[in-house]
Amino acid sequence: MFQPLLDVFVDSARLPHPQEKKPLRLGISWWHGDSIKNFKSWCFHHILSSQYEITYSTHPKEPCDIVIGASFMLEGLDKPILSFLQKRIGYTGENERINFDIYDFGMGFDLLSFHERYLRVPLYYLSLWDRFYESCAHLDSPFQIDPQIVQTLKATPTTLFKDKHPHIDALAREQSDPCKRGFASFVASNLNAPMRNACYQELCAYRPVAGGGGCLTRLGNALQTSMNF
After folding, report:
1. pLDDT over 60 at 207, yes or no
2. pTM for this model (two decimals)
3. Start-to-end Cα distance in the chain
4. CATH 3.40.50.11650 given to domain 16-122
C-alpha cells in the first residue's frame, strides 16, 4: 500500500550526480542544542551533500556562503540568524508564514507564490523522507529500495525495521485492508489552531475519530508515543 507512494517519492527526489562537487560553506542557525548534528538528520543535508562538499559553521563571524535557519517566531528561533550578514534561507514546518523581512528565501507548507524566493515544502514531504530514510537505515525493511540509493545515502543498517516500527512493518507485510481499520486518528497538542479544530469537529460529526493528543483527546490522557497511536 505504501510502496507505490514511496516509489513515486524516490523517483521525484532523484538528483543527477555532479561530475565534481563544488565547495559550499553553509552557515547553520537551527534549533537549540547541537545545530549541525540536528541539521544533518534532515533531508536538506542529504540533498545538499549530494551536490556539494559542505563545510559547516554556526558562528556569524565565521565565513560562509549562505545561512539556513529555522523560522519559528513563537520560540524566538528566527532572531539569532539576524547576526549573519549573508543571504538567509528560512524553513518552517509549522503553522507560520516565512518572514521575508528576515529571510531572503523561504521554505514552508504555505501555498504561497513569491517567485524564486519561496519553495513549498509541506510537512508530509519531510515525513515521506523520514520513512524513506528509515527504510534504508534498518535491516529487513518491508519496502523495496534500490541498493544504489541506499549506498548514496551512506546509511548503515544496524537494527531490524520491525523492532523500530512494528505497526508499519506488520501493515506493509500483511497488506491489511485499511477499510477494516478505524476511520481516522487525530493527534495534536496545540489548541491554537481554530481551522484544524473545526475540521476535527466536522470529521467527528461524520464518523467517530480516535483522538490521542494533548488536546481534543478521547482517551482521557495524552499518549506518550503518538507515532504508535
Report:
1. yes
2. 0.71
3. 19
4. yes
Q: Amino acid letter at 225?
A: T
Rg of the chain taking only CA atoms, in angstroms: 20
Give backbone dihedrals phi and psi of 27, rounded to 5 degrees, phi first.
-80, 140
The Cβ of residue 120 has, within 10 Å, a number of other Cβ atoms equal to: 13
Angle at 83 between CA 32 and CA 75, to 5 degrees: 35
Please give the average per-residue pLDDT across 29-42, as a whole number.
80
The domain spans of the chain are 16-122, 125-179, 182-229
User: What average pLDDT does this structure show over 212-219?
Assistant: 72
Task: Tell whether the model's pLDDT for residue 228 goes beyond 60.
Answer: no
| Interatomic CA distance for residues 29 and 85, integer angstroms | 12
Q: CA 158, CA 137: separation in Å to the nearest integer? A: 7
CA pair distance 84, 130, nearest whole angstrom: 30
